[in-house]
Write a structure and sequence with these properties.
Blueprint: H1 2-14, H2 16-37, H3 51-62, E1 70-76, H4 86-100, H5 108-114, H6 119-136, E2 149-154, E3 157-165, E4 170-176, H7 187-197, E5 207-210, H8 224-239, H9 242-265, H10 275-306, H11 310-337, H12 345-366, H13 368-376, H14 383-390, H15 394-397, H16 399-410, H17 412-426, E6 435-436, H18 448-459, E7 468-474, H19 483-494, E8 499-507, E9 514-520, H20 527-537, H21 542-547, E10 549-554, H22 556-590, H23 594-619, E11 635-636, H24 639-667, H25 673-699, H26 707-739, H27 748-753, H28 762-781
Parallel strand pairs: 6-11
Antiparallel strand pairs: 1-4, 1-5, 2-3, 3-4, 7-9, 7-10, 8-9
Helix pairs in contact: 1-11, 1-13, 2-9, 2-13, 4-7, 6-19, 8-9, 8-10, 8-25, 9-10, 9-12, 9-13, 10-11, 10-12, 10-25, 11-12, 11-22, 11-24, 16-25, 16-26, 17-23, 17-26, 22-23, 22-24, 23-24, 23-26, 24-25, 24-26, 25-26
Amino acid sequence: MSTFLYKLGKSAYDKPWQFLIGWIAILGIVIAMLAVNGIHSSSEMKIAGTESQKVLDQLTKELPEASGGQASIAFTVPEGERLDTPERLALIQKAVNDVYHVDYVINPAKLAAEAGLSASESSQMGTAAAQANQGTQTNQPSTAEIPPYGPLMVDGVPVIGVMLSSDGSLALFQFQFTEQQASLPKSVPDAVVNAVAAVEQNNSGITAIPSDSLKSTPAIGSTEAIGLLVAAVVLIITLGSVVAAGLPLLTALFGVAISIGGAYALSKFIAINDITPILAIMIGLAVGIDYSLFIVNRQRRMILDQGLSAREAASRAVGTAGSAVFFAGLTVIIALFGMLVIGIEFLSTMAMVAGVTVFVTVLLALTLLPALLGFVGERICSPKVRMKNSSTDHKAQHGFSIRWVKGTVKYRWLIIIGVIIVLGTAAIPVTKMELGIPSGASANLDTAARQSYDAISKGFGEGFNGPLLLVGEPQNASDTFTPEKLGSLVQELQKHDNVSLVTLMGVNKTGDMAIISLIPKTGPTDLATKDLVNDLRAPESSIAQNNDVKLGVTGFTAINIDMSSKLSEAFPLYVGIIVILSIIILLLVFRSIIVPIKATVGFILSILATFGLTTAVYQWGWMHSLFGFDTGGPLLSFMPILVTGILYGLAMDYQVFLVSSMRESYVHGHRGTDSVVHGYDLASRIVLAAAVIMVSVFAGFIFAPDAMIKQIGFALAIGILIDAFIVRMTLVPAVMAVFGDKAWWLPKWLDRILPNLDVEGDKLITALNAQSSSDSKTKANKPA
């Protein structure tokens, strides 16, 4: 491996234009495909096979106009005023009618007519049942008291889809699309918002607040540039040259452009979620900068410490550090592609795009980077740096790392126990971690999504922010729904302790499928709402038995509940797969039993502490103002799987670069703790710089406008911070010191089976030194 990469690096260095033009051509092809196919992405995150998705698929087949997403508009007036004045009622009624005439918006009058009812009768049936239910429960304790409400009336006729709070200060307009929001043209939500905005004209005093499903928030903002700026500063400090520092940044940006451009170019044929490219940018920038940094730093050290030419140093750097880059990148790719076994489409797409991004980044580090080094030539180390290096004691340069590792080795048992206690304490909140999808309840107070959520909760109850869509079918396939059966089913549903309002939306043409809207008393992310969904689905429930009906539950809230459950079930399988595969790779790289096991145990400590701190901050709201949000909420349901895969791969990067230096020291004659100290001294400075860069890049996403990107950015940043600084650079040398030379023990039978990958290029360096010695002797013996 190292010999092949050495030759590849030398070829790229000698023929830089060929490699540069080749990569520019690839970028050109990507841009051309992008221009032809366009950009296609959506916010859809569906999981095939879940109960809610099955119901949606059934609706799409049987009654497609009822299978779409739900949205709402809250109309408010200043405190002490009412909405039901003639002028304001006219404005609201016009706005509602205008929305019903927008393409893709369902007009409930048509669905109700198919059930043999007028739309007003359908609405009144649900409202009457709700009021009757409240009346029968007035003397019973309630955990979620709901204020009285009723339909908004104009000249004695209800405005379909609109409810008015008891004090008249809030009207809630709920409606449904024929498609899920992710599949709607962008013009549709905009048309709805524009239609209701008319009520705010002519000093009416009305404020129209759209729900979060109607407002698109940019996934990222401008703070990500700060992370890149910090990375640039760290590169300049580490490499001591603006030219040298610019190469890793240029390589990383080139890789991100090709990878993300390629993903978008194929988005016409492969469904791309809005978060997918953001995730790939995070990973591409982080590993792209780090991998190039390792190679450039190795080249400079060879020039300054061994007096090699820039050409020879670049070739050897690609052959040695490039081998470590290859296997580190392979570990990240395996961790990402392990998500494919879970069988969740949008996660698989995320994994593939991110994995391909890492693959492209590794190729660029091994080909384009040495080509760029060929353009720079000997200028990679300025005369000033060379002079300073020749007059500076090497030990003085690395004084802190030597003192740190010697202290860690000396107090190794105290360090090991201390790290376990600290990370174990940080992991405690994991036991209370709740998964879901961030909603208006956790949005910032100054956003329309949060204002809408709070207004609706105050006027009607939290459940109105997360309506459920029920599909009822007779147990006997030959039966159909009559108005009497429908009325009985609605009243039975309304009697449930956690139901606020039930509204019949209609039936299909054959009369054997009823569509019902149900409003819980509790919020979309409340555990009681999850229990309600499970109760409604249970075939043995009194509702199903008394009405001889099968109930399916879907809607945004139910979809999120099912998604969280599915991902929680898949998480242990995923972790098991990536751990086993990665242990095999680490076994090949280090030729040791203890090192891969130790690396994995250290990662488990890291990931538990990471999720513990993420739960404390984003769910419990600790230090929320510091991280730019107002209210805690459930963690993103697919965040644990995503972060675990990425962090495992990146953690093994540092494991490879740090411990491979210790192995190199051991192979070259250092024994016991000396190999730990010497290897740590060689690699710690560059691993420290790489970790700071990764933390900076990921931290730049913490202040992104999108709540999901915030959580992912924080988890990755804090995860790298913990794993690199506490586990790899503190715990690892302490544990290695405990085992000493036994850390490199490998059974003889296994030693014979495993191929020697020569990751650090020992064979390559030996061969090159032998060739150099032979050439010198030949030159000396050659007659003048």
